[in-house]
Amino acid sequence: MTIEESEAISQVLSAHVGPNEFDATLSDPVLPSAEVLLPGSRRASEKVLEVRNAIVSSEFLRNILLKRPLEAADADLRILHRILMKDLPMENAVVWGKAQRSGEYRTVVMQARGKPLTIYPVR
User: Which helix (H) or strand (E) holds 48?
Assistant: First the structure.
Protein backbone atom coordinates (compact mmCIF):
# COMPACT_ATOMS: atom_id res chain seq x y z
CA MET A 1 0.00 0.00 0.00
CA THR A 2 1.41 3.36 -0.96
CA ILE A 3 1.28 6.54 1.12
CA GLU A 4 -0.96 8.12 -1.53
CA GLU A 5 -3.44 5.23 -1.29
CA SER A 6 -3.46 5.45 2.50
CA GLU A 7 -4.09 9.20 2.33
CA ALA A 8 -6.93 8.66 -0.15
CA ILE A 9 -8.51 6.13 2.22
CA SER A 10 -8.13 8.59 5.11
CA GLN A 11 -9.83 11.38 3.13
CA VAL A 12 -12.80 9.18 2.21
CA LEU A 13 -13.09 8.01 5.80
CA SER A 14 -13.13 11.55 7.16
CA ALA A 15 -16.17 12.24 4.98
CA HIS A 16 -17.98 9.09 6.18
CA VAL A 17 -17.00 8.79 9.85
CA GLY A 18 -17.18 11.66 12.31
CA PRO A 19 -14.78 11.95 15.26
CA ASN A 20 -17.51 11.16 17.79
CA GLU A 21 -18.86 8.22 15.81
CA PHE A 22 -17.27 5.67 18.12
CA ASP A 23 -18.43 5.77 21.69
CA ALA A 24 -19.01 3.21 24.41
CA THR A 25 -22.34 2.12 22.90
CA LEU A 26 -20.79 1.08 19.58
CA SER A 27 -21.13 -2.64 18.93
CA ASP A 28 -20.97 -2.94 15.15
CA PRO A 29 -19.44 -0.02 13.24
CA VAL A 30 -20.74 0.72 9.74
CA LEU A 31 -17.69 1.58 7.64
CA PRO A 32 -17.21 2.20 3.90
CA SER A 33 -16.28 -0.81 1.77
CA ALA A 34 -12.94 -1.25 0.02
CA GLU A 35 -14.53 -0.28 -3.31
CA VAL A 36 -15.82 3.00 -1.84
CA LEU A 37 -12.44 3.78 -0.29
CA LEU A 38 -10.32 3.10 -3.38
CA PRO A 39 -12.62 2.89 -6.41
CA GLY A 40 -11.17 0.92 -9.31
CA SER A 41 -8.11 -0.09 -7.31
CA ARG A 42 -6.35 -3.33 -8.10
CA ARG A 43 -5.18 -3.52 -4.52
CA ALA A 44 -6.47 -6.52 -2.56
CA SER A 45 -9.60 -5.48 -0.69
CA GLU A 46 -8.33 -7.09 2.53
CA LYS A 47 -5.31 -4.76 2.55
CA VAL A 48 -7.55 -1.74 1.98
CA LEU A 49 -9.78 -2.84 4.85
CA GLU A 50 -6.79 -3.35 7.14
CA VAL A 51 -5.63 0.22 6.47
CA ARG A 52 -9.18 1.51 6.94
CA ASN A 53 -9.49 -0.30 10.28
CA ALA A 54 -6.10 0.97 11.48
CA ILE A 55 -7.06 4.56 10.63
CA VAL A 56 -10.46 4.29 12.31
CA SER A 57 -9.00 2.63 15.42
CA SER A 58 -6.35 5.34 15.76
CA GLU A 59 -9.10 7.98 15.49
CA PHE A 60 -11.05 6.12 18.16
CA LEU A 61 -8.00 6.19 20.42
CA ARG A 62 -7.24 9.84 19.75
CA ASN A 63 -10.78 11.25 19.87
CA ILE A 64 -12.40 9.08 22.52
CA LEU A 65 -9.99 7.25 24.79
CA LEU A 66 -7.29 9.88 25.17
CA LYS A 67 -9.81 12.55 26.15
CA ARG A 68 -11.18 10.55 29.05
CA PRO A 69 -9.80 11.18 32.54
CA LEU A 70 -9.92 7.48 33.47
CA GLU A 71 -8.18 4.44 32.06
CA ALA A 72 -9.68 2.55 29.14
CA ALA A 73 -12.47 0.27 30.26
CA ASP A 74 -13.05 -3.30 29.17
CA ALA A 75 -15.83 -2.13 26.85
CA ASP A 76 -13.44 0.30 25.16
CA LEU A 77 -10.92 -2.45 24.47
CA ARG A 78 -13.65 -4.65 23.03
CA ILE A 79 -14.76 -1.82 20.74
CA LEU A 80 -11.17 -1.31 19.63
CA HIS A 81 -10.82 -5.02 18.85
CA ARG A 82 -14.11 -4.97 16.92
CA ILE A 83 -12.94 -2.00 14.82
CA LEU A 84 -9.55 -3.59 14.07
CA MET A 85 -11.15 -6.84 12.86
CA LYS A 86 -14.15 -5.31 11.02
CA ASP A 87 -14.85 -7.02 7.65
CA LEU A 88 -11.66 -9.11 7.78
CA PRO A 89 -11.71 -12.92 7.44
CA MET A 90 -11.07 -13.45 11.16
CA GLU A 91 -13.84 -11.12 12.30
CA ASN A 92 -16.08 -14.10 12.93
CA ALA A 93 -14.07 -17.28 13.31
CA VAL A 94 -15.21 -20.77 14.18
CA VAL A 95 -12.95 -22.56 16.66
CA TRP A 96 -13.76 -26.18 17.54
CA GLY A 97 -17.29 -25.70 16.24
CA LYS A 98 -18.03 -22.57 18.26
CA ALA A 99 -18.37 -19.08 16.75
CA GLN A 100 -15.88 -16.49 18.02
CA ARG A 101 -16.92 -12.90 17.24
CA SER A 102 -14.42 -10.06 17.45
CA GLY A 103 -14.94 -7.74 20.38
CA GLU A 104 -16.40 -10.49 22.55
CA TYR A 105 -14.90 -12.94 24.99
CA ARG A 106 -13.88 -16.35 23.67
CA THR A 107 -16.28 -19.19 24.35
CA VAL A 108 -13.59 -21.86 24.01
CA VAL A 109 -10.63 -22.60 26.25
CA MET A 110 -7.34 -21.37 24.80
CA GLN A 111 -3.91 -22.28 26.07
CA ALA A 112 -0.47 -21.27 24.85
CA ARG A 113 1.93 -24.20 24.94
CA GLY A 114 5.23 -25.01 23.37
CA LYS A 115 8.57 -23.29 23.47
CA PRO A 116 8.87 -20.99 26.50
CA LEU A 117 10.49 -18.12 24.53
CA THR A 118 7.82 -18.08 21.79
CA ILE A 119 5.54 -15.07 21.52
CA TYR A 120 1.92 -16.19 21.13
CA PRO A 121 -0.37 -16.38 19.17
CA VAL A 122 1.45 -18.33 16.49
CA ARG A 123 -0.11 -19.33 13.18
Answer: helix 45-63
